[in-house]
Amino acid sequence: MDSLTQIVLGAAVGEAVLGRKIGNKAIFYGAIAGTIPDLDVIAANFTDTVTALAIHRGVSHSILFSLVLSPILGSLVSKFEKHKSRKDWTLFFFLGLVTHPILDAFTTWGTQLFWPFEHRLAFKNIFVIDPLYTLPFLFFLVLTIFQKKETKKRRIYNNCGLIISSSYLVLTLFLKFISYKTFKQHLEKQKINYTNIQTKPTALNSILWTANVKTEDSFLIGHYSFFDSKPIQFSKYPKNHHLLGDLQHHPKMQQMIAISNDWFLIQNKNNKLFYSDLRFGTLSLDLDAEDFVFKYKIKLDKNENLSFTEIPKKQEDAKKLLAALWTRIKGN
Q1: What is the C-alpha separation between 93 and 87, in angstroms, rounded?
Q2: Over the stretch 42-95, which tens digit does the pLDDT of each residue have?
Q3: For the chain, what is the domain count?
Q4: Which of 135, 312, 329, 331 is spaced 20 to 30 A from 91 at the CA atom?
Q5: How many other C-beta atoms can be found within 10 angstroms of the C-beta atom of residue 143?
Q6: Is the residue at 214 inside a domain?
Q7: Enclosing domain of residue 291
């Protein structure tokens, strides 16, 4: 999830654990704990694109990381804070750290929660920024801050934020199930043979959903809103994996393919190859859209070093997409 959401979650969890004993310091330290796992983005400044992608939401988003770091932080903070219980602080930091990757596991990118095992857990039922999850949560956290630590209202407000946000998260799982069944029904009605299907919500909402569909030689992408009244239309994108030639066996290419879990296509434009990760969709809802959210230029130098350069997204593309999303949410 986005940084603000993780800060709010960490703060609320911190309040639930030690709010009665240390007041707003629990919110402060909880916010810090909720931020720590995302410091893995710093790796992008010191390594290549593929390695940075592999590291992101890897070891720092694992249960093992939380188990190792929490007693260290707990011991450190207990030395200079009035509340001296190392046990309390260790539990505090463990819950603040581990709830971060657990929440991220519900997004499209997912997390390696069980690192060092390479499996990335991704339920794909909530977008990385969802106001319906974050804003009520933030509202009740702000109310909590202005209550004295001993008051019952403080606990009630914080619990309301945790319960409402968690309930919404569960609701999105049901919405995902309904959209999944709907996509399958439309594929069957259109007599489309496929080998795999993945569904996820579009940006900032849980009403409009996207399906990535894998066939033998192509990928299909379709959108479905709960307000739709017409059949789902699917865009078709050839995989074009053959364009890679021997590059397909290069270690860096194999690593990139593993990161995208084989949901990728290759495009050739002006004799230059581009790698697009389908998991995050296109920059447009048009049926003929060709630009993907995560698209990389492939380059092989004279020393056989393979590199990927992300194609920057234009601000105007984001604005157009948000406008199109708002229109499409209301139905086809």
Answers
A1: 10
A2: 988 899 999 999 999 999 999 999 999 999 999 999 999 999 999 999 999 999
A3: 2
A4: 135
A5: 16
A6: yes
A7: 190-332
